[in-house]
Amino acid sequence: MNIGIFANLAKPAAELALADLAQAARELDVRLVACDKATARRAPGARLVAPARFGKAIDLLLSLGGDGTVLHSVRRLAGADTPILGINLGNLGFLTSVPDTQAVPALRAIVAGAYEISAYPLLDARLFRGPRRRLVAHARALNDVVVGWGSSPRATMIEVEVDRQPVASFVCDGLIVATPIGSTGHALSAGGPILHRSLPALVLEPICPHTLSNRSLVLPNHPLVSLRIADRRKKVLLSVDGQSTGWLEDDDRLEIRRAKETARFVNLPGYSWFKLLNQKLHWRGSSADPK
Which residues form the catalytic set? Predict the structure, then answer.
């Protein structure tokens, strides 16, 4: 069994976690595979492969870090349907379900086949420019596609259509189109709702809207969502899963739809999405520890 490892080496716990995994891998007779030399050096015995071959060379990927590391791991897989297990080396992390202290038991469970896999749709975002609708950017997102910030502090106007039907013109600092996975990310910090991960839905969340009538909007995930910057005074930034993808200019058209590809995640025995929310958001209720 070939187990991929991808780690945020800036995390203090990364080096020890990789060393522990390398020792356990030798005991379990599995091969660790890395796509960068720094990670491979910290996991003795790991095989190094070219980044372009990484997704196809492994059966499962261990992503060590936080949510940003998991999102980076999805991009590293380059469309391969390899399942991912997020191992948390920090504090807040909705995409990481295993603490670093449980990394070795998690590897043992994987080798024993004691896990399940959940698949979640990605978003396909395409940016078109000019009267001939020239494609200038194309990316896929697990969490969200965001237009905002920009070249001046003034608000902008973003026109929204769903399946070519006009919805509204949002006067705001930006707009987030998030998946249920991403609803606990940037969209949540902007005041949006939490969507259950199994919902076939999207949330449109305006950032600092300049009117009380511009509220969160939850949509099914099958229509085409189109955004257009209708303000000549300002360019705004396009961000996909936290990565800058370019600038949107006046009259650009951003089209977002459900992608054909999915991201697959490993769930170990005892995993509960509600328990995860309880822990990360510090909810208190009947399921919380009374202490």
Answer: 67
